[in-house]
Amino acid sequence: MNSAIFSKRLKLLRLTHKLKSNTLGPLIGSPGKGSISRLENAKNNPGFIPLTGLAEFFAIDLEWLVGRVNKPYREEIISYEEKNLFPIYANIEKKSVEILPYQNLLSLPEDYVDLTLRKKTYSLALRADIIFLSRYLKYIVEDDPSVLELSEYLPLILRPQSENKSEGKRALLIGETVRAKLLTSLDESSYLKCYSLLYSIFYVKKLAPIDQQIPVFNIMVSKEQ
């Protein structure tokens, strides 16, 4: 394993996904204080748990992480991670709460549910984004269940347009009333942001040809890949 490349790619993953070190640690099974910083600075060699945790949580090729290949995504890995991904439940106070799909506001499109259509519609990078956002959303809710109070904004985020004119006017009215608060919450809340980004992938980003799709977290734009 090339420790220097691993350190760079670990930091690239963290920064591209806009995660703090103390947030990334628990996500990959390495919650100790300063553990991620030591790995990024090549002061510690990664153990089995953080290595496999990174590969699983971000749906990336372990071989890419350790510098043996240059492409982070592989169909076999992405498909494996997708197998039992949905539905996603958050465990809160001994109860399971379904967070994806979310009520009738965010369902899984048919072109994602069907694997054959999924391969034709979503790039590997977008599929990896979906896996990460879904798992991160579960972590967010279980870590701080109070974020569920922000769910009142989800109808505005996940249904920005309405086919019914009267509902559309009402939505616009509500939007104008709470617009400032909503924008602030979106900017500050990872919970709302995950839903917003998933919506964008399922209904906007997938519309581009696969070779022109721009992922939410583009780890391939860095020169340190």
From TrEMBL:
InterPro entries found in the cross-reference section: Cro/C1-type_HTH, Lambda_DNA-bd_dom_sf
Sequence intervals crossing the membrane: none
GO molecular function: DNA binding
Gene3D superfamilies: lambda repressor-like DNA-binding domains (1.10.260.40)
PROSITE patterns: HTH_CROC1
UniProt domain HTH cro/C1-type: residue ranges: 10-65
Protein name as it appears in the record: Helix-turn-helix transcriptional regulator
The organism of origin for this protein: Megasphaera elsdenii
